[in-house]
Amino acid sequence: METKVSYLSDLKFNLETWIRELKFHAKEMETFKQKLEDIAARGYNPEAFKPLEMFANRIELEKDAISKLIHRCKRKIHNIEIADMTESIDGRLLYEQRPLRDDIKT
């Protein structure tokens, strides 16, 4: 049981770290979006707007992915907080964590 508590506290710490880092990246995406809007306001020729629009769309996709990952991290933290400490460690939480880890790599 002591091992499980240690494992869960480490997992919770990692999730909280990911949430902080994801929030930082979300703020960075907002900064990039603002800079793109500033560039677009300068009124370059219409051909110059295609790459700007492409980057703006990519930023929106990234912000959406970040939002989903933050939500999933918070949900996993909630699951850790309600975990049954008398249950044996069978790798179930580690197995459930793997898809989130893969999502964060994208």
Topology of this structure?
Blueprint: H1 2-40, H2 46-81, H3 92-105
Helix pairs in contact: 1-2, 2-3
Structure description:
The protein is 84% helix and 0% strand. It has 106 residues and is an all-alpha fold. It has one domain. The two termini are 34 Å apart.
Overall body shape: rod-shaped
Number of strands: 0
Class from helix and strand fractions: mainly alpha
Query: Per DSSP, what share of the residues sits in E-state strands of 2 or more residues?
Result: under 5%
- Number of separate helices: 3
Major sheet description: none
Order of helices and strands: HHH
Number of domains: 1
Mean pLDDT: 82
Oligomeric state: single chain
- Which stretches are low in confidence, meaning pLDDT under 50 for 5 or more residues running? none
Question: First CA to last CA: what distance?
Answer: 34 Å
Concise synopsis of the structure shown:
By secondary structure, the chain is an all-alpha fold. It is built from three helices and no strands.
